[in-house]
Amino acid sequence: MKLRELVRDIPCRVTGNTDIEIRGMQYDSRKVQPGDLFFCIKGFATDGHQYAKKAVEQGAVCLMVSEPQEIEGVSQIIVEDGREGMALLSAAFYGHPARQLRMVGVTGTNGKTSTTYMLKSIFEQEGSKVGLLGTIQNMIGDRVLHTERTTPESMDLHKLLREMADDGVDTVVMEVSSHSLVLKRVFGIAFAGAVFTNLTQDHLDFHGNFENYQAAKALLFAASQNSAINIDDPHGDFMRKAAAGKVNTYSAKGEADVMARDIQLGTDGCRFIMKTSGATLPILMNIPGMFSVYNALSAITISFMLGVDMMHIKLGLLAVKNVPGRFQQLDTHGGDYSVILDYCHTPDSLESTLKTVRGFARGRIVCVFGCGGNRDNLKRPIMGEIAERLADLAIVTSDNPRFEEPMEIIGQILAGMKKDNHVVIENRRDAIRYALEHAQKDDVIVLAGKGHEDYQEIRGVKHPFDEKVIVEELLAELGR
Ligand SMILES: CC(=O)N[C@H]1[C@@H](OP(=O)(O)OP(=O)(O)OC[C@H]2O[C@@H](n3ccc(=O)[nH]c3=O)[C@H](O)[C@@H]2O)O[C@H](CO)[C@@H](O)[C@@H]1O[C@H](C)C(=O)N[C@@H](C)C(=O)N[C@H](CCC(=O)O)C(=O)O
Ligand SMILES: Nc1ncnc2c1ncn2[C@@H]1O[C@H](COP(=O)(O)OP(=O)(O)OP(=O)(O)O)[C@@H](O)[C@H]1O
Ligand SMILES: N[C@H](CCC[C@H](N)C(=O)O)C(=O)O
Ligand SMILES: [Mg+2]
């Protein structure tokens, strides 16, 4: 694409030759190829402008900058805000794929991944080809693509949306993390639908305080034509006020546009009656827990607003199997205890998972958990308190320590624990071994926090660590 064409509708100033051909785009100098445009992004760790020269040496023919560079022989696109510029330029470069797609975004502290899986299934019932973007993986129909981020960088996002549109996808359901909203990864995208699941403590390391975290989430509703809002959440009203388009609320407790009544929670699933002012619909799902009722309500509300008929919604929810690593029951090969793998890594999700288990457990609840390093440290003692209150035995261990000292993280978790129903085993494999070795009849062992992850990140290195595999190996080792 010619530079002149690329910048036609972008608020910017251009210096140098605009007749050049832009072959590709890159925001990491280490990946620049000849003919690329290099985005200079000011980051937290470093400033992309520092790598402009290197990018040009590697063949970049154009730079996008917020601070003009004194480099000869290269065109420069000068923008106010680098991240906004990157979002707009990459959308234009890839031919505005989001405009061809029905874009549905899901945000909230917990339940994003689970809700996107429900939505994918609902839209597929309707006959749509669905693209999915989120924490576990990206998908084009049934084709799975690896992902590093919950919400990709804008340039990667538009590239992927182009691939989806070209592959016949008509609807995209995506998790929109609060990081991505602040860092403008979805800037400029007009969403057809947006979902608010809930807002509880997490990511205060990044946002600084809860108000900023809330304001970040609200950005999605300002960019959507339709918003489905959980009005049982104390922050639902804030999201409703921030919404620019039509709003429908949902509730499992009181009055709302979409309500759940006669909720029945079972070991393997849940059922409820969905009620609106004009309709009722019995819903059955194979995923347990009150949080699944909320996630289903959010999916129902937005699909209803987008015109999906009731029967497709009902069948779509019925078809959703376990979302990988979310309340996933592992095989204990005939053992008289059970093991549940769950991605609860926030106070609220740990609480809702342990309460769900409490609802059906006949024996002890044993909770193996830790907290991730280089993430919100205020949640650590809170999660310690929740684990000792709701589990019979807590095994405090490591999650992804990243660049922190595991025992320091554990110390901060223990600061919230006043009872003595816990043991500390820093090595996570040994912690799981301990739980399996000491499992008693009817125990429910909850492996909390890492869910679908197949690695443990220590000092920048991702070591293989798939808890499904580890449980298999340990059961064989222990002869259980
Ligand atoms: C806090 C955060 O999100 N940071 C993201 C941000 O990093 P940054 O702004 O600090 O970038 P930086 O390292 O200072 O670099 C600035 C620029 O220089 C470039 N650079 C750097 C070095 C070099 O040699 N050459 C070069 O060109 C970089 O590519 C970048 O463009 O921009 C980077 C480039 O896109 C991201 O990789 C990085 O994600 C980091 C790794 C991260 O861990 N993000 C997590 C917290 C995140 O985004 N999580 C959410 C999920 C949260 C949830 O579950 O709710 C997500 O959506 O995944
Ligand atoms: N609506 C909900 N309310 C509270 N907890 C929930 C809810 N939905 C799921 N959970 C719990 O949170 C965990 C994570 O769920 P999920 O992966 O769907 O959330 P997420 O918002 O995508 O998380 P992340 O920000 O890490 O991507 C689940 O394993 C479950 O324990
Ligand atoms: N998207 C979340 C995932 C956390 C998963 C947990 N296992 C941890 O490492 O803290 C984050 O990046 O904060
Ligand atoms: Mg997720």
From TrEMBL:
Its main location: cytoplasm. InterPro entries: Mur-like_cat_sf (IPR036565), Mur_ligase_C (IPR004101), Mur_ligase_C_dom_sf (IPR036615), Mur_ligase_cen (IPR013221), Mur_ligase_N (IPR000713), MurE/MurF_N (IPR035911), UDP-N-AcMur-Glu-dNH2Pim_ligase (IPR005761). Catalyzes the addition of meso-diaminopimelic acid to the nucleotide precursor UDP-N-acetylmuramoyl-L-alanyl-D-glutamate (UMAG) in the biosynthesis of bacterial cell-wall peptidoglycan. It is an enzyme of class 6 (ligase). Pfam families: Mur_ligase (PF01225), Mur_ligase_C (PF02875), Mur_ligase_M (PF08245). A motif (Meso-diaminopimelate recognition motif) lies at residues 399-402. This is UDP-N-acetylmuramoyl-L-alanyl-D-glutamate--2,6-diaminopimelate ligase. Meso-2,6-diaminopimelate binds at residues 375, 399-402, 449, 453. UDP-N-acetyl-alpha-D-muramoyl-L-alanyl-D-glutamate binds at residues 29, 150-151, 177, 185. Keywords: ATP-binding, Cell cycle, Cell division, Cell shape, Cell wall biogenesis/degradation, Cytoplasm, Ligase, Magnesium, Nucleotide-binding, Peptidoglycan synthesis. Carboxylation is probably crucial for Mg(2+) binding and, consequently, for the gamma-phosphate positioning of ATP. The modification N6-carboxylysine is found at residue 217. It catalyses: UDP-N-acetyl-alpha-D-muramoyl-L-alanyl-D-glutamate + meso-2,6-diaminopimelate + ATP = UDP-N-acetyl-alpha-D-muramoyl-L-alanyl-gamma-D-glutamyl-meso-2,6-diaminopimelate + ADP + phosphate + H(+). Belongs to the MurCDEF family. MurE subfamily. Its cofactor is Mg(2+). Residues 106-301 form the Mur ligase central domain. The keyword Ligase applies.
